[in-house]
């Protein structure tokens, strides 16, 4: 599975979202740099993509969305799977490790946890990444994506001229 993180600066950057999604790339859209109106327009555009091509769109935080294409770019046994977990306390940390060890990207939504427990889980995830390889990206203040080694990630930050 190929993952591309995009941070459009305005609605004019919509083509890049469509380009990656239509090629079967999982897209994380970070709309925090956009006005609320432009963000709403881009979410509507993404909903149209999902309707036309199939797949799924999940809200990871108020202005961060994940678009999962129906037919991912790189086939594998875990094709199209991204596990979104919202642990309520540190005892649920084993689920993160379980899916990550299976080669499944994990989105950890720590918004239901206290800051101290959230830091513990991020520390655990950092150890997991260090030992197994891969990458961890902050998608919003309390939402992180863990990508196992061997899965491509991209930094498609869009800069306006």
UniProtKB/TrEMBL annotation:
A single Gene Ontology CC term: cytoplasm
UniProt keyword annotations, A-Z: Cell cycle, Cell division, Cytoplasm, Septation
Chief subcellular location: cytoplasm
Gene3D superfamilies per the UniProt record, alphabetical: SepF-like protein (3.30.110.150)
One GO term (biological process): FtsZ-dependent cytokinesis
Subcellular location: Cytoplasm
Annotated function: Cell division protein that is part of the divisome complex and is recruited early to the Z-ring. Probably stimulates Z-ring formation, perhaps through the cross-linking of FtsZ protofilaments. Its function overlaps with FtsA.
Subunit structure: Homodimer. Interacts with FtsZ.
Protein family according to the UniProt entry: Belongs to the SepF family.
Protein name: Cell division protein SepF
Originating organism: Actinoallomurus iriomotensis
Gene name in the database record: sepF
């Amino acid at each position: 599975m190929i993952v591309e993180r995009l941070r459009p600066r305005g609605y004019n950057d919509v083509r890049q979202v469509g380009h990656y999604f239509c090629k079967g790339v999982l897209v994380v859209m970070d709309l925090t740099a956009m006005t609320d109106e432009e963000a709403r327009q881009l979410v509507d555009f993404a909903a149209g993509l999902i309707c036309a091509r199939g797949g799924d769109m999940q809200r990871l935080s108020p202005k961060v969305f994940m678009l999962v294409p129906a037919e991912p770019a790189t086939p594998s046994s875990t094709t199209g799977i991204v596990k979104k977990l919202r642990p309520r306390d540190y005892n649920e940390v084993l689920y993160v490790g379980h899916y990550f060890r299976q080669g499944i990207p994990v989105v950890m939504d720590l918004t239901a946890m206290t800051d101290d427990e959230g830091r513990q889980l991020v520390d655990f995830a950092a150890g997991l990444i260090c030992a197994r390889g891969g990458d961890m990206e902050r998608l919003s203040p309390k939402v992180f994506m863990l990508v196992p080694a061997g899965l491509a990630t991209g930094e498609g930050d869009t800069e306006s001229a």
